[in-house]
From TrEMBL:
Organism lineage: Bacteria, Pseudomonadati, Bacteroidota, Sphingobacteriia, Sphingobacteriales
Residues in the signal sequence: 1-22
Listed name of the protein: Uncharacterized protein
Keywords of the record: Membrane, Signal, Transmembrane, Transmembrane helix
Domain of life: Bacteria
Transmembrane segments: 118-136
Length: 148
């Protein structure tokens, strides 16, 4: 009798539906900010803005499964220490960065790593190639029967 009551209690307690699905992370597009160089806390730019900032690179990232497939609209900005907010760089700030900190953001290229620029594309193309190769039917060889 105790077994039946215990089984009934467990059955009723487990009736709630659980839908724990793994979500595939997809960015279409996600704004990303990466710190390029930390500025000193007593820099002129920190005094001009009123808080400590770092030189950062902001871009839109298109990707899936933590792979960057495409990056666009990259520009240099000044971000706070946690990269949660940013300030656009105007001509006065660009001049201060060039003179005081030897950072020329007007002629600098993209500071993104190889993986962020190209690596995700390579992995994506390899996986797509394997999938296409697996879908294409192979031609069967004609086998002629041999009399023994």
């Amino acid at each position: 009798m105790k077994t039946i009551i215990l089984t009934a209690c467990i059955a009723f307690a487990s009736l709630g539906s659980v839908s724990a699905k793994a979500k595939v992370p997809i960015c279409l597009p996600c704004e990303s900010i990466e710190t390029v160089q930390e500025l000193p806390k007593d820099s002129e730019i920190a005094k001009l803005i009123g808080k400590n900032v770092n030189v950062a690179y902001m871009y839109k990232q298109y990707g899936a499964l933590w792979m960057s497939l495409w990056n666009s609209d990259g520009k240099y900005v000044l971000s706070d220490e946690g990269n949660r907010s940013y300030v656009e760089v105007d001509a006065q700030m660009a001049k201060i960065l060039k003179e005081k900190h030897n950072i020329d953001i007007e002629t600098a290229g993209s500071p993104l790593s190889f993986w962020k620029k190209i690596g995700g594309k390579l992995v994506f193309l390899i996986i797509a190639g394997i999938l296409v190769y697996g879908v294409i039917p192979s031609k069967d060889k004609e086998v002629k029967p041999v009399k023994i």
